[in-house]
Q: What sequence folds into this?
C-alpha cells in the first residue's frame, strides 16, 4: 500500500508528478533531503511530551509546510541529482 493511499492528508501538499521518496538514494529524496530534517527540528522545538500531543504537533508541522519550501527542497534534489550524474552514479559529494 502506498503512502498516498494510506495518508492522503500528508500527500496533499505535494504534486504527484515526482517521487518524494527514492528507494536507494536518500540524497535524491524530497522527504530525506529537506522535509524530514525540517519536520524533526520543528517537532523537537514543540516539546510535545505525550503521544497525542506529538501526533497533533506532527500534523501541525505538515500543515506549516509552505509551497516555497517545497520549491527550495526540489531545487536541492535537482542539484544533488546533477552531482550524481556528473559522478556517473556516485554520491560522494558535499551537499
A:
Amino acid at each position: 500500500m502506498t503512502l498516498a493511499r494510506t495518508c492522503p492528508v500528508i500527500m496533499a501538499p505535494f504534486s504527484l508528478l515526482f517521487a518524494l521518496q527514492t528507494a536507494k538514494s536518500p540524497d535524491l529524496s524530497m522527504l530525506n533531503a529537506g522535509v524530514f530534517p525540517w519536520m524533526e527540528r520543528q517537532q523537537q522545538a514543540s516539546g510535545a511530551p505525550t503521544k497525542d500531543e506529538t501526533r497533533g504537533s506532527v500534523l501541525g508541522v505538515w500543515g506549516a509546510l509552505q509551497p516555497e519550501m517545497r520549491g527550495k527542497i526540489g531545487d536541492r534534489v535537482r542539484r544533488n541529482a546533477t552531482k550524481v550524474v556528473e559522478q556517473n552514479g556516485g554520491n560522494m559529494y558535499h551537499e
